[in-house]
Each structure stands twice: as structure tokens, then as C-alpha cells.
């Protein structure tokens, strides 16, 4: 029932929720049955709205002024907006956003001559009729707010001209439409209209005409054309908007378009502007000095462009609370008005400008300089300065800090002596030159979700007080440092941990059994340390694990048998496969595959990896490893593994790289290996493999690229090797029995025959000394010889039959 459950028959309808009546006449003037998009926890409520249709009986509310049915499901059986809505002559407010309507917007809405607010946004099945276009909007002279976000306008070519005839328009939102070229057809008299060529020149000319038609919208306060323009020059738009005697524009949003050019000096006219978002375009050059005239600006996003220079006048924008200049080509920030290069420090005025900012991003540029010494007094909550050329030490940091990313710079020295930021959730200092010990105060950061100190010069053991907190940690990277000590025990409390990289350190000791309790773990990299002991069998409890790297340690013992429990490696979908990730961190991780180290990130989820190479593992390769059908890379090279290659290895259909080199494997190469169609790298060298090499075009291609993949196996023969598989060079096998690992000599059978022969000879030597027993002995020997012969013949027959069935 939703809101209608409060409507009770017999009560005054003016007291019902969502109903408002006129105090003077008693007529219903407002019907507001909107459904919030999200609840208090951020969960979508759209599906929980009212279901049905908009009934024509509503027309009895002839005095209705306000109608809001947004985010319900009242589209009816045909899914169309009912045309009778255009009969509400007194309607001033109409909001049908978020409804699953389809088809064209009914032109009958043009009959609502008193309409001031029209919102049809997020109705992703709606489109404007190509024949009449938007001409019906001309009949709405009082319209102040128009939101057609996500409505398909690709068939409309006259909307700028129509907008020009809405002098009261204050808010225009055409965002998230399909990028459309603004064709000039229909905007000019037919005698002047050029033919439609469909090329870029026509598109740019259309943008120009759009801008000229918008210049009369002097009441416009918000212009949002997000993801709506296929091309155009920024100057064409801003110069025409600036022709108003006194621009009232407060928000200009042109993000996610293909707009080019250099920001013009006309930007300075928009003195009322508080929100400017030109991100994700192709703007180039430098910002004009007139940008300093936008004194009311609180939000500025110029990220993902090709800008190269900021004027010193940007220091006059002291009200900025959100600044994103990331992913441009800035090589420096101006230090003084007369000096446009910076050598050792950021200009003082810059930090004064951003002192009130809570969000600051200057990432992925080429900016040099140092961080300010008074940084702890700033109000920053989110600070991105990654991928620049910043040097010097890290100063004391702001107390309100929640996210800090200063990775990929040249910062040096130790971490700050103190860090009082109780709300810090992400600390990323990856790839700098920070040295010294990891300070103990990190254990007090109870809200920390992502800690990345990798690729620095930290040394010593992790602080013991670290065990007191960080239970919410999801991402931990300490790789490429000089850390020592045992596997960090504080991780035992981190039940939400899904990324752990401790590789390339000096860590030692055994891996704890409780590692199997970290059931959310997806990536575990411990390679290039000095860990010893066995691989804990509890590691097979990590059902979400899809990247296991224990290479280059001192680990011994056998590979755990129950690898089939690691569901993320089986290639089969299962509940819990999508573990939430810590936002904002870089998941790039190296994988030793195909004979080299490659970088993969969180988008390369198909790289399922096991690397146990360069250890002291013994025993055989577990047969159950073939159940890991999603495995892409398997590297068991440079160990002491014996036994045979699992004969069902062909079941690992996704395998692209297999390295079993430098072990003690023997027996034949399984024929099923040739069925691995994705296999592009194979290395079986320096084992004791024998017999004929399996045939197949995939294996031949791999051999042609890497002709050393069979080296060090003197018993192998057949194509592509030059050694023929004749009877002389095919190794003779003893009495073998087929098992999951292949064939082996049956101990019972072998012992029975040998014991019988030795026993007979002992009896023979004894009885030779007694003449009276000689006759009896030879009779007994004849019988036993016959039985032994039968045993041998039967055994050989069984062997040949089983061999023939393979």
C-alpha cells in the first residue's frame, strides 16, 4: 500500500499524507506521492514504490497545482506517459522522474501554460518525437526548471532554438543524453539552411548555433549538459552566455563531453558562479587569469583534460572547498605573479587558497615542490597528490584527514612523528623513498581500511602495538621494503582483509595456521622472503582466494591435497565471489607468468594464479589440483617435487601458463595436455620425463616459440624432438599399475616374486647336503617353479591389458 495505507475512508482527505488543500477554497492543490530513491542506509527503494497506472480519475482534481509521482512504478501496461496529464490547466509543478516510462514524451504537456517546474529525468525509455521535436515547450513561457536527464534527444535538432524562447528558464538539465551533434537544420530559414553533410563541420556549426540561441537565457542559473555534446569549442558556449547584461549563472556542468579549446577570458563574467565542472573533456592550454574573478566559486573540477598552466590569480579563489586538477599536464604551479616556475616549494598563496578546502586533487601531473610545513592546520579531508614529482619530508598532517594519497612521488625521510587523524580510512604512500621504522601510532587508526606503504625503504619489525587495532583493514601492501620479523600477528583480527602483499622483504618464520580464518582474502602475496615450514593446510579454507604467491621462500613439505576447496579457483560461480573492495586503492599486482613478470590490476579478475616456485616442496603434485578449472597460471618450478604429472591435467581448461621445470618429475607427459586450447606457455625442462611427447598444434606452436621447454629430459622422444621413439630408446617399464598418478611398480607383486626366488635358493643350499632330501627337493622346486611361472604370466598379462586400455 505504501503511502496510501494512511488514507482512511471517512477521514478528511485534506489530512491524508501526500495531500494538501487550499486554506481558502478547500480544493486539493497538491498531490505528492513520491518515493525516495534510497533509504537511510543507501539501499535502493525504487522497486518498493507504488505499482499500477495513473488513472484518468485524477482529472476530477481540476484545481491541482502540484503533482509529484516520482520514483514509483505507475507506467501501466503500455508504459507511456498518459496524454491527459496535459489537461491539468492549473498545474505549476510536474515531477514524473524515475518512472519506467517508454515511448515519446506527449506533446499535450504543452497545454500546461502555467507550468514552472518539469522533471522527466531518469526515465531512460523516453525520447523526444523527431517530427514535432520540442516545439510544445514554447507554450510554457513561465517554465523555470527543466530536467530531461537521460531522455533521448538524438532525433531532435531544434532544442537550442526552443530553449531560447523560454526567457524564465533558470535550470536546464540535459545531462546523460546520448552525445548528439546539434544540427543547424530547422534553426535557420529554409533558404539559408545548409544541406546536412553528417561530418564534423556540420556538428561544430550546430554547437555554434546552440550557443547563440542560449545567450538570451539571462535568467539561467544552472546549465547541466553532462555527457550530451558530441563535440564543440568551449569558447563558442561561454562567449555567448557571457553576453547577458548580468549573468546569473551559478552552476555550469559540461563534464563527460568532447569539448575542446582553451578556456576564454569571458569566464570572468560569471561572477555568480559557485560550481564549475568541466572534467573529462579535451581542454588544453592555460587557464585565463580572469578565472580569479570567480570569487564565489566553491567547487571546481577541471580533471581529465590537457591543461598545462595555472595562473597565479587562482590564489584569489579563497572560498574553494573542492578542487580537482588531476590528470592534466601541469608541470608546475606558479610561485609568484611575476615568476611562473617553482623550484623547491609550492607557492605560499596556493596553500592559503586551499586552506578551507576539504577536497583537493592534483594527481597525475608533473608538479614539483614540497608539502607545506603548516599542513596540520588545514581542513583537508581528502587529498590526492599522487603521481607527481614532489620531494622532501612528509609534515604533520591535518586532523580531519580521511583519505591521503601521495603515492608515486619522491618523498623521503621518516613518517611524521605523530598522526592524529582518527577518521583516516585510506593511507597510500606507495612508491616513494620513505625510510625508518613503521611507527606505532598506526595501531591507533581504528577506522583504517587501506594501508599502502609498499615500494619504500622501511626496515625493522612491525610495531607490536599494531595488534591493538586496525580490525577494519581490507587492503595491506608492505611489499618491496626491508621489513624483518615473523608473519604479522595483528592480521589475525583483520577478518575483512582481502588483499595482502608482503613480498620482497626479509620476513621469516612459519606461516600461521590461523591464516585460514581470513576467509575474505582474495590476494595473498608473500614471495621473496625467508618463510619456512609447511604450507598450512588451513589455506584451503580461503574460498575467495584467486591469487596465491609463495614463490622464492624456504617452504618445504607437500602441497596441500584439498585445493579443490578454494572455490574462487574452480571457475564455477558461487555465493560470495564478489567481495567488496576498499575504494580508491591501486590493486596493481605483479604475476610471474609466461616466463616473465607482468602487472595486473583489479580489472584483470580472470588472472587466477598459483605460484609456489623456488621453494623446497616435496612429494607429488596433488591429483585434486586439476579441479581448479579457473586457474590461469600455475608455477611449481624449481622445487623437489617427484611423481608424475596428473594425467587429467587437461581438465584445467583455462590454463594459459604452466611451469613445472627443475623438479624430479618422471613418467610420461599426459596426452590430455594437448587439449588445453588457452595454453600459450609451457616449461617442463630439467625433470626425468620419458616417453613420447603428445601431439597437437597448440604444443607445436609453443615449442616453436620456446624450443627449450623439454630440455633436460633425456627419456623424451618423438616430434618435435629429433629423437625417434624406437624400441631401443623407449625406456622399459617394470610391472606397473595405473593409478591417479599414472603407473608404478606394484610393491606386493614385486616382493612376492623376489621373496619366492630367494627362499627357494636358501632351501636349495641347505638340502644339497642331505642326499635323502634331494629327490624330494627337486620335486618341490618343480611345483613351486610352475606356480611362480603362472604368477609372472598372469601379472604380465594384467599389465599388458591395462596398458592397452590407456
Topology of this protein?
Blueprint: E1 19-21, E2 28-32, E3 66-68, E4 93-95, E5 102-104, E6 117-119, E7 125-127, E8 145-147, H1 159-163, E9 171-173, H2 200-214, E10 222-224, E11 232-233, H3 234-241, E12 251-253, E13 259-261, E14 275-277, E15 282-286, E16 299-301, E17 306-309, E18 322-324, H4 348-353, E19 359-361, E20 368-369, E21 382-384, E22 389-392, E23 403-405, E24 410-413, E25 426-428, E26 433-436, E27 450-452, E28 457-460, E29 475-477, E30 482-485, E31 499-501, E32 506-510, E33 523-525, E34 530-533, E35 547-549, E36 554-557, E37 589-593, E38 596-600, E39 609-611, E40 616-617, E41 633-635, E42 642-643, E43 657-659, E44 664-667, E45 681-683, E46 688-692, H5 697-705, E47 715-717, E48 736-739, E49 742-745, H6 747-767, H7 771-804
Parallel strand pairs: 2-3, 3-4, 4-6, 5-7, 6-8, 8-9, 9-10, 10-12, 11-13, 12-14, 13-15, 14-16, 15-17, 16-18, 18-19, 19-21, 20-22, 21-23, 22-24, 23-25, 24-26, 25-27, 26-28, 27-29, 28-30, 29-31, 30-32, 31-33, 32-34, 33-35, 34-36, 35-39, 36-40, 39-41, 41-43, 42-44, 43-45, 44-46, 46-47
Antiparallel strand pairs: 1-2, 37-38, 48-49
Transmembrane segments: 748-769
Subcellular location: Cell membrane
Keywords: ATP-binding, Brassinosteroid signaling pathway, Cell membrane, Glycoprotein, Kinase, Leucine-rich repeat, Membrane, Nucleotide-binding, Repeat, Serine/threonine-protein kinase, Signal, Transferase, Transmembrane, Transmembrane helix
